[in-house]
Amino acid sequence: MEMNFYVLFLAALVPMMIGFVWYGPMFGNAWMKEMGFTKESLAGTNMFKILIISYVFSFFIASFLMFVVIHQSGVYSTLAGEPGFNEKTGEGFAFFQDFINTYGDRFRTFGHGALHGVITSIFFVLPILSIVALFEKKTVKYVAINAGYWMVTLAIMGGIVCQWL
Predict the structure, then answer these.
(1) How far is CA 20 from the centre of its chain?
(2) Is 99 in the same domain as 111?
């Protein structure tokens, strides 16, 4: 499988673009209230540092989504250790080439990736956020704002990765 890292770099921008709107004009005031922040308390934050680190983590998320939204990568990882596979020889590699030629385009749409992004947010992100929120004594509103953000974000990231990677 050829990997286009540019798609991952593009997908890694999505959390910042969605976050700019989500935690800005859409839910910024509600989120700040839930967090106990004020505009004054947020002043002086090193946003450049936060955005750079966030982008690196977002790249990790985009890379992880590749394995969630592209089903063919499961076949690749199953066969990658077979003798000769990395040298592009052997029975395992021949099987993989046949498989990709026949099924390589299956479920490789934006909608399919978005579906898996939503499923990931519901069954992975939502439980993590909720557990943390329980221990931090945060409200359901706090969870809804953040889980909603990740649902939209992972849907778009998953769609981009599935369609164009």
Answers:
(1) 17
(2) no
